[in-house]
Amino acid sequence: MATRFADRMQTVHRSFIREILKVTEDTSIISFAGGLPNPELFPVETMQKAASDVLSQSGPEALQYSTTEGYQPLRQFIADRYRSKKGIEVDPDEILITSGSQQCLDLLGKVFLNAGDNVIFERPGYLGAIQSFSVFQSGFVTVGLEEDGPDLDELEKALRKDNTKLFYAVPNFQNPSGLTYSAEKRAGVAEVMKGSDTLFIEDDPYGELRFMGEHQKPLSRGYIKDGSVLLGSFSKIAAPGFRLGWIVADKEIRDRLVVAKQASDLHTSTVSQRIMYRYLSDNDIDSHIEKIRDRYGRQRQKMVESIERFFPEEIKVTKPEGGMFLWATLPEGMSSMDLFDTAISHKVAFVPGRPFYVDGSGDNTFRLNFSNSDEERIAEGVKRLGNCLKDYLAK
Ligand SMILES: Cc1ncc(COP(=O)(O)O)c(C=O)c1O
Known about the structure:
The protein has helices spanning 16-23, 44-62, 72-86, 100-112, 127-134, 152-160, 183-193, 251-265, 270-282, 285-310, 336-345, 375-394; strands at 30-31, 95-99, 118-123, 139-146, 149-150, 164-169, 199-203, 228-233, 244-248, 316-317, 325-329, 348-349, 351-352, 365-369. It is an alpha/beta fold. It has two domains: 7-43 and 287-394, Aspartate Aminotransferase, domain 1 (Alpha-Beta Complex); 44-282, Aspartate Aminotransferase, domain 2 (3-Layer(aba) Sandwich), CATH 3.40.640.10. The longest helix is centred in the last third of the chain and has 26 residues, at 285-310. It is globular.
């Protein structure tokens, strides 16, 4: 029998990064390719206690079906944290708990995108969002990223195109570039978007991982008062294995997302939500986040210093103030795909940049992850990569 897949899957590709990660399973390769949090920082013992307390004190409720919106005390915790840490007002009834923030992208696609609708997308942009939106047969209109945020002229032009339903952005320590929107650019984006009926999607899984500089207010509710949603995640501040994220949306949008989520999976794991809430109630999450910041900050510093020492000066690299990634640009006309093969033979890996561009550009860029290697391996890996780069430039 011929297998008759749906048309919508024709344009959706396997995650390029997951394919690369297979190559880097060889432990002699120092890999800056993945985007994983450092597992040494997962709160294993405190989670074990939280899980045991939940199961012994409210086992039947924790193992039962529950509401689609999510566990109310967890939503209250998230709302309180937005008020105290970010200075924005969020009602717990405006929050929907999801299976990771990745699920929010799928639900937003279901609720907003007809085939042929356009999504305004950062150039470069988050690969997982390209995959999610492509399932809905969307088109992309890209907006270039400058050092302090999007090119506002390009954004203005993009907003004038037909059917630009959504503008998806990662304004803090973006994946893949590590770039953060400045306060001026945030205000500029809000100004350009005023009166537009394009929904602004702010994806913020890295915002709490700031090692230096000033925290920025979210665009959503901080700058854009109407027509935005804000995504969050426990993956980078606690552990991704729980698959817990959330979306903040005004009631009309949230109710639609609830219906889409019911159709997908009824609700997010009850037991995950209760264990996470117990963990957050019994422990000081701020001091845990401080530990992550301290470790990642040192690893980022080591990577920046090693790059200054070992990379040829023609290679431009971002110096992010937080998050998990640095972004490198080779001279025009060079290909990081070619460099990748040489790098693997030198036992070091990164992610070539082209898959992060929906318009096929970016061949001369690549992403480096610093969260999941210790300082010694970072220094050694950057040295190896520096040697490859020198060989490659000399060709
Ligand atoms: C920008 C961005 N959004 C969303 C996600 C998905 O995170 P989660 O584990 O919350 O689904 C990631 C994961 O790396 C990401 O980088």
